Amino acid sequence: MNTQEQLTRYVANFVDELSKSGLTDVVISPGSRSTPLAMMFAEHPQIKEWIVLDERSAAFFGLGLAKQTKRPVALLCSSGTAVANYFPAVVEAHQSRVPLIVLTADRPHELRDVGAPQAIDQIKLFGDYVKNFHEMALPEGTVEMLNYVRTRAARSVSEALSGNPGPIHLNFPFREPLTPDLNLENIWGEPLREPYHIWHEGKKRLPEDFLNYFAEKLSIARRGLIVCGPQVDEELAEGITMLAETLGVPVLADPLSQIRTGSHSTKNIIEGYDAILRNEVIRASIKPDYILRFGAMPVSKAYLFYLKENQDVTQYVIEPHAGFREPVGNPTEFIQADPVLFCSDLLEVSPTLLSEENDWLTKWKSYNDIAKSHLTKTSDNTLTEGEAVKQLVDVIPHNSSLYVGNSMAVRDVDTFLMTSSKKLTILANRGANGIDGMVSSGVGAAASGQPVTLLLGDLSFFHDMNGLLAAKQYKLNITILVVNNNGGGIFSFLPQAANEKHFEALFGTPLNIDFKKAVEMYDGNYHQPKTIHELKKALQLSYGELGLSVVEVKTDRTENLIWHRGLWRDIEEDILKLVEQ
């Protein structure tokens, strides 16, 4: 067996085992050293290859696709700084628990640390941001080595998915020549009925004696609160809402909780909790006996203040696997159990903890009614940032995904997304909360074939405009709503805004860019509505257009600040009247 055949069979067996283990998509950024893997992925009949030139964009594209499909996606790049460009997306995948299989080509060992071109130290480059790192052996074609690569391929898929999902890094050293022989017979190895390794993972559930003990504790402390932060399990909504109605407690549902929309009951959901909790007196009037949290910490900063002021309140955090997500530092009991099973098991041992509405729940609902009356109020035809989000939520198609950018975008969705029977999957990169890679993430989600709308600000759009290339290249259908306030609008809400001398240069950062020209460069459809009516029409048109559609709403940062603060003030004043009664 010559060197080329050894290389070919080694790489082909690896790629084939990824497919047998369930991998369906790979995002490739072309380069020379990665040639063996790139050609084999392109050749494999069961794996779809997505070619994204810029590695940073490619990694976020893969992240968005993995978030949308809840399946591992492979990333492949050449050696050198190409690998380093994956870092932001790998960090986000780790923080937000997204399965990625990062495959990096490398120089062979004799060309490392000797001044060879395009060579950097790639060993454990991503540190603790990957669940596992493995330096692959140099290609050989022996039976033992082909078994080895199949084991590693199967194991990488399993490790990416098991426990808390996350990224895996495999580093491949290749010697030249790098071109595989695609004409070899039986190139994918001996046909196997099953994957080389099969893993079975059960779901954690609690014993009945603990459930009885826990149900008793909850029945004694009647002023309970269920909080659901960002999470992606669509089956959890039914369990949480049924548990809340049994306990007679409100549910503070983050916009990324997958609970505000859908066919499940929403009568105990408090959508306006961020507006409600902005006032210290109001927060003090609704102090709970306990907090039961599912998912990550909510987006709301007002909820963070609420926690800090109630450190003596018993808090329970339900985690499906080991993990520590309690940034406030409050005393907490962590319960490791599958959240869906936890809800159903708790209901089974105590199906009638509380069967009627109580004063505690009534108070929360009355506050929420006041907040919603203001948040849903029909304004004049002025197109504010909040109105942009309200109109988007109103016209976005049923059974579609909304991918939300960070900074003001996700906060406005938190404020203005009301409960609805419309089925929406709401995604965001809230692991590290960065604005980088948002366009690529949204386009990657659209690569799943599901309808996707991306909502983001002008800085996030500018930061990742080259992500639009994949939408053009693959004719992906995606609507992007860009709220353009010519800079970093969220900083207007922060103390930095008081320093007028340096604010615009350091924080406001106006771009003064004509995005229409950029959209046209990528063959996209472009709309710039000026009124609420025009916005709704533009969005409706965009969902009928093929390929990329960008709807740009121009707003003023100062006016936006005044509008938001006025809205929160009106809510606060009306709720305080109830508090003082």
Automatic annotation (TrEMBL):
Its EC number is 2.2.1.9. Residues 221-404 form the Menaquinone biosynthesis protein MenD middle domain. Residues 14-124 form the Thiamine pyrophosphate enzyme N-terminal TPP-binding domain. It comes from the Bacteria. It catalyses: isochorismate + 2-oxoglutarate + H(+) = 5-enolpyruvoyl-6-hydroxy-2-succinyl-cyclohex-3-ene-1-carboxylate + CO2. GO terms for molecular function: 2-succinyl-5-enolpyruvyl-6-hydroxy-3-cyclohexene-1-carboxylic-acid synthase activity; magnesium ion binding; manganese ion binding; thiamine pyrophosphate binding. The keyword Transferase applies. It holds the Pfam family TPP_enzyme_M_2. Keywords: Magnesium, Manganese, Menaquinone biosynthesis, Metal-binding, Thiamine pyrophosphate, Transferase. Pathway: Quinol/quinone metabolism; menaquinone biosynthesis; Quinol/quinone metabolism; 1,4-dihydroxy-2-naphthoate biosynthesis; 1,4-dihydroxy-2-naphthoate from chorismate: step 2/7. Its cofactor is Mg(2+); Mn(2+); thiamine diphosphate. Residues 439-553 form the Thiamine pyrophosphate enzyme TPP-binding domain. The keyword Plastid does not apply. One of its GO terms (biological process) is menaquinone biosynthetic process. Binds 1 thiamine pyrophosphate per subunit. Coiled coil: none annotated. Homodimer. Belongs to the TPP enzyme family. MenD subfamily. Catalyzes the thiamine diphosphate-dependent decarboxylation of 2-oxoglutarate and the subsequent addition of the resulting succinic semialdehyde-thiamine pyrophosphate anion to isochorismate to yield 2-succinyl-5-enolpyruvyl-6-hydroxy-3-cyclohexene-1-carboxylate (SEPHCHC). This is 2-succinyl-5-enolpyruvyl-6-hydroxy-3-cyclohexene-1-carboxylate synthase. It comes from Ornithinibacillus halotolerans.
